[in-house]
Amino acid sequence: MWGLSMSNKKLVYLADLTHRGLVLSSNVFPLSIGLIAAYLINKRPDDFEVELFKYPEDFSSAIEKRKPDIVAFANYSWNFHLGYQYTKIIKKLYPEIPVIFGGPNYGLENEEINDFWKKYSLIDFYIAREGEEAFLQLLDILLLNNLSVDAIKLSKEQIPNCHYSVDDRVIVGSNLPRLAIEDIPSPYMMGLMDKFFDENLGPMIHTTRGCPFSCSFCTEGAAYYNLVEQRTETLKEELDYIAKRICGPSDLYISDANFGMFKQDIQKAEILVNLQKEYDYPKYVHVSTGKNQKDRVINIAKMLDGALNMAASLQSTDPNVLANVKRTNISIEKLSSAGKLANKAEAGTYSEIILGLPGDSFDSHLNSLRDCVNANFDNIRMYQLIMLHQTELNTPSSRRKYVIKSKHRIMPRSFGRYSLAGNSFVAVESEEILYEHNTLPFDDYVKARELDFTVELLHNGRVYEELQSFCETSKLSWFDFILRFYKNRRNHGNDICRMYDDFREGLTDRLWNSRDDLEIAATKNIGHLIADEKGTNEMSMGKATGFMVLFDQINSILFSEMKSWLKELNILDPETEKYLDETCRFSHLRKINVMGNEDIFIESFNFDFKALEESGFKLIAKEIKLKSPTKFKITHSSQQHKKIDGYIKEFGKIHDGLGKMLMRYPHVHRIFRHAQPA
Q1: Which class for 298: exposed (0-12), middle (13-18), buried (19 or more C-beta within 10 A)?
Q2: Which of 33, 102, 320, 627 has the fewest Cβ atoms within 10 Å of its own Cβ atom?
Q3: Are strands 423-436 and 405-420 parallel, antiparallel or unpaired?
């Protein structure tokens, strides 16, 4: 069954797996296991042979061809149960193989940790905290014990950064000092990541480790991670290596928690700018930008010419909520003003808001959204509070303090049917989300999420920038207009009601009281889940429905609502009404069937929509009024054709894929058709 090696090296399989449904659950290179492999090979080149895996079918095929000596899985919320289902079969076939897990998806307090080992007893060892040195030391101990797990457990030896269970007792090793980031070789430069350069995956790198903040909802909020390690050496060489080999999405993912916050980040940005000039890569840089030093972040965003969005991760603008999650060291005033500054600098912006943090309510959430919209953030990522492992908020004591009630849902795109050595199995990932606490009753939670959906539908991606800019030039509140649509959402016809009903169903009907109940239901219906092109993420589903299916209806409703609002305010004059009617038609032609590359429209208008578009829709009607009706051609540019083709190649044309594309890429307005004189 297995191929034979003449080497005495121990064969180690490291897996950071992604589910493979209609759309990948994780479409980035497996950086974490790459770093562990690079460190291990660098320190013990004569002792270990390492193979890395991302795709389940490759992992299964490798095990069937060649039995490993050691197997290790990266544990994230989107792949833990996939790894554990593999563990069940591996332990059935080859019980002697040590199985190791590591990653942030693990408990913080003793109660959580003990519960983990009761549920997942087939795991032999768990690497907590940073893993490179800890994994090396664990493997050295395994070698000394002839790879005998039982021998180590019999000794009850404490292994640094390592946990394991013996006789219902968890043996916990002491914390290792964190490594200097420069002590870890680049897995790219060592050739370890070459196999992942394909049409699906985007490279991920790191330039820092750690975060100086102590947010209680974040896995990096613990004191262990507060010291930030910087990396500048070999970064240029690594990025050159990547750019020469890229063959998939033109995206670069940076795992830093606060990119742009440190003075060294200017040097890193200069490297990226030179990379763009030489290789036309990356087109987009996905990274969490710094929570302070926004001037530096804005400067970096300008340097990268639209490839990077400035993120102001507010989470809430309510002082009491922020105090409850230990976020008082971040200036709300500075973060809020940063949106306006970034827009003036033509740098894309987004903020994050989390519904359900301790002390949150419908009114405080509404005000947080208002603050973000008024600050001119292009996109607002609105999240539910996920009870993440290794966070203070997920501890039993915090749950009791805030009377947190939670349920389980299927993680979007994170499920599938797989096989190993003739053994087929189903794996389904889930997330535990808060739906109620002592200041946020469930009904208010649902109303708040419907408001989130409305903001996603109308604001994010500047989908309706014509109306947004009209509000700005008319001294009207764009957020109040969004709120108007939200309050009238049940009065806009059956299709719109059905869209909101589907969204609400995702919030209420697709929740389970326990992980076990969810797993039973999902396993029973796995065929339907895999085949369902709409997916399981209600926000993504709704966005695709609203923009791709019901766009024409919603577009007409919005312009009609604007005219009604102006009439109520007694400020609608005939010229403005005519302008809004023509802009409604122009908006329709720009965006209808937006992924249809070949569509060309020729229409006559009484206003200069080319000039209006070039101004960011910030000119008023009388400034663009034409002397006579003029024909305009409305079509995509050749550059837009390429961008759309790239999106289709990456995400396909299925409902779930389009929703993921609309949610992931905040500049969807950049693929809207342009107006040119015919």
Answers
A1: buried
A2: 627
A3: antiparallel
Q: Do 357 and 319 contact (CB within 8 A), yes or no?
A: no
pLDDT tens by residue, 511-539: 999 999 999 999 999 998 888 777 778 89
CA atoms of 337 and 357, how far apart (whole Å): 23
Are 428 and 414 in contact by the 8 Å Cβ rule? The answer is: yes
Rounded CA Rg of the chain = 26
Locus of tokens 């005998």: 148
Q: How is 7-62 classified by DSSP, letter by letter?
A: --SEEEEEE----BSSSBS--B--HHHHHHHHHHHHH-TTTEEEEEE-SHHHHHHH
Contacts of 669 (CB under 8 A, 6+ apart): 461, 462, 463, 465
Q: How many helices (H) and strands (E) does the chain have?
A: 25, 20
> In 3D, which of 394, 369, 211, 184 has the Cα closest to residue 288?
211
**Domains of the chain: residue spans and CATH:** 10-172 (3.40.50.280)
Pick from 418, 14, 413, 18: nearest CA to 201? 18
Inter-residue contact 52 to 59 (CB < 8 Å): no
| C-alpha angle 443-539-448 in degrees, rounded to nearest 5 | 25
Whole-number average pLDDT of the chain: 89
pLDDT band (50, 70, 90) for residue 333: low
Tens digits of per-residue pLDDT, 436-481? 999 999 999 999 999 999 999 999 988 999 999 999 999 999 999 9
